[in-house]
From TrEMBL:
Belongs to the class-I pyridoxal-phosphate-dependent aminotransferase family. This is Aminotransferase. The keyword Transferase applies. NCBIfam families: PRK09257.1. Residues 27-392 form the Aminotransferase class I/classII large domain. Transmembrane segments: none annotated. GO terms for molecular function: transaminase activity. It comes from the Bacteria. PROSITE patterns: AA_TRANSFER_CLASS_1.
Length: 396
C-alpha cells in the first residue's frame, strides 16, 4: 500500500530546531523558532495562567464534549478582544466566532469554509510570508500567489508594489494579511497605509483574511487590534484568525479562534452553521483546557489586568533586545546601519543576512536563524546578546 509513498521534506523551521537540539556547541542560541523566552532563556508560564488554573483545579469539573464551536464564554471573549464588546458589529450579531486549534486551526477552518463559498478564488499571501500560509491554503484546494511586500534591497516594505498587486487582483481574490507583527520580516505598514489597503480591498472587491497571531506584541493590545476596526468601519466582510499561543505563552495548548464578519445577523448565523460543519468533519469539537484558561483570564478583571501587564512586559523586553542588538552590533564593529531592527516590531527581525551568512552563523557559532535571515529577537536575552552580536559581526 505504501511502497510509492515519498518522503516529504522536513518542515524548515522545525527541522532547524532538531538540528539545534543535536548541536553540541555549549554557546548555541536558538533564534529559529518563533517562541518568546524570558531573560533567563525560559519559556514563561504566565502568572495569569497559573492563577486561572489554580481556581480551576480547586473546582475540578468533568470533561464532556464541548459544543462544536467551543466554549461560549471563550468565543464571546475573543469577539470582545478582537472587535470590542460594545462594537456595533458584535452587538448586532454580525460576528461568528469559533474556538480553533491554535491560529493555524483558525486559518484552516477559514480556508476550508472559503473553498466552499468561493471555490474558484485565488489566494494571495505576502512575499514573503509565514511558510504555513501557502501550505494551508493550497491544501484547502486554492491556487496561492503572492502580493509584493518586502523590498530586500531597501530593507523596507514595498508598499507601492503591495498596492499594485492588490489592484491587479481579480475580484473575489482572498488576500491573507498579517494584522500586526509581520512574520517573517517584522515590518508592519502604517495606519495610513492600512487605509489605502482597505480602499483597494473595497474597490477591487477582494476578501480580506486577517491573521492576528501576535496581538499585543506590536504596540499594544488595542493598538494592534485597531486595524480590525478599520476593516469593519469600511463595511467589509472579513475573516480574522486569532492565536493565543504567543500572547498567553500557551503554545502547546493550541488556543486560537476564527471570527467571520458577515453583512447581517442572519448571514452570520448561516456562516456559523457552515463553520460548524467544517469543524465537525475535521476534529468534531475543540479541547477544553486552553480555551477555558484564556476565557477565565479575559473575563476576570483582575486576571485580565495581570495578563495585560505580563504581555506588556514581553513586548517591552523584545523592544529592549532590539535596541541592544543594534547597539551591540555597532560596538562589535559592524559598520552598516542596523537601526532598521528597531523599526521592526514583534518577535521577528529580517536581519538582511544572506543564506551563506546564516549557514556560517549556525555552523561556526551555533546561532540558529532561518536561511532567509529571519531571527527571533524574542529569544535574545541579557546573557546571549553579546555572543550573538559578536557572531553576527564576524559573518557580516
Ligand atoms: N500565523 C502566523 C503569522 C504565525 O506566525 C503563527 C505561529 N508561528 C501562526 C499563524 C499560528 O499560530 P498557532 O501556533 O497558534 O497555530
Amino acid at each position: 500500500l505504501f511502497t510509492a509513498v515519498e518522503m516529504a521534506p522536513r518542515d524548515p523551521i522545525l527541522g532547524l530546531n532538531e538540528q539545534f537540539v543535536s548541536d553540541s556547541n555549549p554557546n548555541k542560541v536558538n533564534l529559529g523558532v518563533g517562541v518568546y523566552f524570558d531573560d533567563n532563556g525560559k519559556l514563561p508560564l504566565l502568572q495569569c495562567v497559573q492563577a486561572a488554573e489554580k481556581t480551576m483545579m480547586a473546582q475540578p469539573t468533568a470533561r464532556g464534549y464541548l459544543p462544536i464551536d467551543g466554549i461560549v464564554a471563550y468565543d464571546n471573549a475573543v469577539k470582545a478582544l478582537v472587535f470590542g464588546a460594545d462594537s456595533d458589529v458584535v452587538t448586532s450579531g454580525r460576528v461568528s466566532t469559533v474556538q480553533a486549534i491554535g491560529g493555524t486551526g483558525g486559518l484552516k477552518i477559514g480556508a476550508d469554509f472559503l473553498k466552499k463559498v468561493s471555490p474558484d478564488a485565488q489566494v494571495l499571501i505576502s512575499d514573503p510570508s509565514w511558510e504555513n500560509h501557502r501550505a494551508i491554503f493550497e491544501n484547502a484546494g486554492f491556487k496561492v500567489g503572492n502580493y509584493a511586500y518586502y523590498d530586500a534591497a531597501k530593507r523596507a516594505i514595498n508598499f507601492e508594489g503591495m498596492l499594485a498587486s492588490l489592484n491587479a487582483a481579480a475580484p473575489g481574490t482572498i488576500v491573507v494579511l498579517h494584522a500586526c507583527c509581520h512574520n517573517p520580516t517584522g515590518y508592519d505598514i502604517t495606519a495610513a497605509q492600512w487605509d489605502q489597503v482597505i480602499a483597494a480591498v473595497k474597490a477591487k472587491n477582494l476578501t480580506a483574511f486577517l491573521d492576528m497571531a501576535y496581538q499585543g506584541f506590536g504596540q499594544g493590545i488595542a493598538e494592534d487590534g485597531a486595524v480590525i476596526a478599520k476593516f469593519v468601519a469600511a463595511g467589509l466582510d472579513i475573516l480574522v484568525s486569532t492565536s493565543f499561543s504567543k500572547s498567553f505563552s500557551l503554545y502547546g495548548e493550541r488556543v486560537g479562534a476564527l471570527s467571520v464578519v458577515a453583512a447581517s445577523a442572519d448571514e452570520a448565523k448561516r456562516v456559523l452553521s457552515q463553520l460548524k460543519i467544517v469543524i465537525r468533519t475535521n476534529y468534531s469539537n475543540p479541547p477544553i483546557h486552553g480555551g477555558a484558561v484564556v476565557a477565565a483570564v479575559l473575563t476576570n478583571p483582575e486576571l485580565r489586568a495581570l495578563w495585560e501587564k505580563e504581555l506588556g512586559e514581553m513586548r517591552v523586553r523584545i523592544k529592549a533586545m532590539r535596541q541592544k542588538l543594534v547597539d551591540g552590533l555597532k560596538a562589535a564593529g559592524v559598520q552598516q546601519d542596523m537601526s532598521f531592527i528597531t523599526t521592526q516590531v514583534g518577535m521577528f527581525s529580517y536581519s538582511g543576512l544572506s543564506k551563506d551568512q546564516m549557514v556560517r552563523l549556525r555552523s561556526e557559532f551555533g546561532v540558529y536563524g532561518t536561511d532567509t535571515g529571519r531571527m527571533c529577537v524574542a529569544a535574545l536575552n541579557s546573557k546571549n546578546i553579546d555572543y550573538v552580536c559578536q557572531a553576527i559581526a564576524k559573518v557580516i
